[in-house]
Amino acid sequence: MTFIDFLPFLLTGIFILNVIFAGLVVFFERRKPASSWAWLLVLFFIPFFGFIIYMVFGRNSKREKMFIQKEKYDTEVYYRYLLFNDTSLDTFRSQKKIIEKKQEYIVQENLDDLISLHINAGSWVTTNNTLKHFIDGNSKFDALINDIRQAKKFIHMEYYILRGDDLGKKIVHELALKAKEGVEVRLLYDGMGCSSLPRNFFQELEQNGGYAVAFLPRFIIRLNYRDHRKICIIDGEIGYIGGFNIGNEYLGIVKRYGAWRDTHLRIQGDAIDQLQIRFMMDWNFTTAYAPISLKKLYFPERKQIDGIKMQIISSGPDTVWKNIWNGYFKMMNEAEKHIYIETPYFVPDDGILEALRVAALSGIDVRIIIPGNPDHFFVYWASMSYLGELLEAGVRCYQYEKGFIHTKAVFVDGKICSIGTANMDIRSFDLNFEINAFLYDEQTTILLEQDFLNDLDNCVEITKEWYIKRKWWFRVKESVSRLISPML
Catalytic residue among 70, 133, 140, 406, which? Predict the structure, then answer.
C-alpha cells in the first residue's frame, strides 16, 4: 500500500481522534460554553496539534490532583491557625454570628453582604490597619528596601516576576545581606514568570542561609497556572500587596513601556496575618524543604486601634470559589453612584460584562481605564472588543497614554475599593493564583480614587463615535481576538 492509498485512513483516524478530544472538552470538563467553543475551534482547525495546545493551555485546573490536594492542605492550615490564634478565632466567630443573625452591622449596612461573602471565603475583617500606597515604582522599592534593611526576624516574599536586571539583583543582594545577619529569608517566585533567570541567580542568598524556591517550575504541562501574587511580609509588622513586580520596567526606565503606573499597598496591622497565612500555604505546597510552621514569631500581637477595615482575599486553582471574582461582581451590583476600574487587561467573562452593562444602563457612572501602550496585543484587541460593547450601554472608556498602566483596582461610590494582583480578565479569574485587599474605608477609598481621576488627565477617551468609524482591519483583529479571548 502506497502512502497515497494510506492517506485517507490517516485523515479518518485524525478526524476520529479529534472528535474524541472534542468530546473530552465538552463532556468531561466543566467549563463555560464560550471557552468550550473556543477550544473546539482549535481542536477542529488544528488537528492533533490542537490537542497538544489544549493540554498545555486549556486543561481545567480544578481537576488537577495537585490543586485538589493544595486546597485540602490550605483548609487544614486555615483551621489550625484559627485554633492557634484565639483572637482571630473569636473575631471570626463573632463576625459570622453578627451577619447570620443580622444583629448589627460590622462596617455599614450596604457593605455587610460583601463582607459576609468574604467571611465565607475564610477572611475576617481586621480593623486596626494603617497603610501607605505607592503609584510610582521608585518610591515603592525605596520603601521596600528600607524595610528589608530594618528587618530583625524574618522576610517572606512571593512574586510573579523577578528580573535578573539591576533592580532584581539589588533586591536579592539586600535579602542575602539580611540572611547573613541571621534573619530568616524566604523567597517564592513563579517558575514561568522568572524563567529567564540564570541558574545561579540566587546563589548569594542561598550561600548566606536564605531560601529561594520556584512555584510550579516551568514544566510544560503546568504552563497555564501561574503564581501571580506579589506580597511581602517583614517581621509580621509590615506587609506589601499590589501590582508591582520586581524589574527595571517597574521603575519606568525601560523605553518599551515608558513611565510605569501601578498601585501597591504597604500595610501595618492585623491584616498582615492573612498575608502570612497565604505565604505559608503557598510555600509549604511548593517545597518540603524548610517548611513553615505556626509560630508566634510569624503572628505577633499588635496594638488595637481604630484603623482601616479590610479583608485579604485569595483565589485561584487552590480555592473552592472564585473569591476575587465574587468580590468584584458583588461590588458592581452594590454600586449606587459610580464604578471606576483600572486594569491592564480587560477580558471579562459574561457575568462581569453584564454587571457593568446593567450598572451603566441604571444610570451609574462606570469608567474603565486600560493601557494605550499594550504589552499583549491579542489581549488589547480583545479588550477593545468588550469595551466597544460597553460603550453602547453608556460606559466611559479610556486609554492611558503616559507610559503603561498596570494597576489592578476597582472603586465603588467612594466607600469601598479593591487593590491587588487580579486583572479584570478570565485568566486572573480562572487560572492564576491571585490576592487582593478589599478596603472598607471612605477616606482611603477617596484618596485612591483621586489617583484614578488624576489618571484621566493622561488618557484619551474611546468615544462611541470613534469606535463606530474604526477601520476594517481594526474590526478583524477585534473579532479574531474576541473569538479566542477565553484562552488568553
Answer: 406
Q: What is the pLDDT of residues 338-379, one digit of tens each?
A: 999 999 999 999 999 999 999 999 999 999 999 999 888 888
Residue 120 lies inside a defined structural domain of this protein: no
| 173 annotated active-site | no
Establish whether 408 is a catalytic residue.
yes
> Is 376 in the active site?
no
Q: Is residue 315 part of a domain?
A: no
413 catalytic, yes or no? yes
Residues 235 and 200 in one domain: yes
Q: Domain count of the chain? A: 3
Give the dihedral sign, CA 288/280/122/243. Answer: negative
Question: Is there a contact between 43 and 22 (Cβ–Cβ < 8 Å)?
Answer: yes
Q: Which one from 118, 140, 156, 228 is the annotated catalytic residue?
A: 228
Phi and psi torsions of 300, nearest 5°? -70, 155
Active site residue: 118, 178, 330, 408, which one? 408
Let me know if 282 is a catalytic residue.
Answer: no
Domain identity same for 187 and 142:
yes
Residue 93 scores a pLDDT above 60? yes
To the nearest 5 percent, what fractions of the chain are helix, strand and coil?
Answer: 50, 20, 30
For residue 313, tell me if it sits in a domain.
Answer: no
Catalytic residue check, 156: no
* Confidence grade of residue 24 (pLDDT, cut at 50, 70, 90): low
SS3 228: coil
Is residue 18, in this structure, part of any structural domain at all? Answer: yes
| Closest of 375, 337, 327, 329 to residue 355, by C-alpha | 329
Q: DSSP characters for 233-289?
A: EETTTEEEEES--BSGGGGT--TTT-SEE--EEEEESTHHHHHHHHHHHHHHHH-SS
Residue of 118, 230, 309, 477 with catalytic role = 230
- pTM given for the model: 0.89
Helix (H, G, I), strand (E, B) or coil at 211: strand
For residue 250, what are the domain limits?
A: 65-100+128-308
Residue burial 373-386, b: 16+ Cβ < 10 Å; e: rest: bbeeebbbbbbbbb
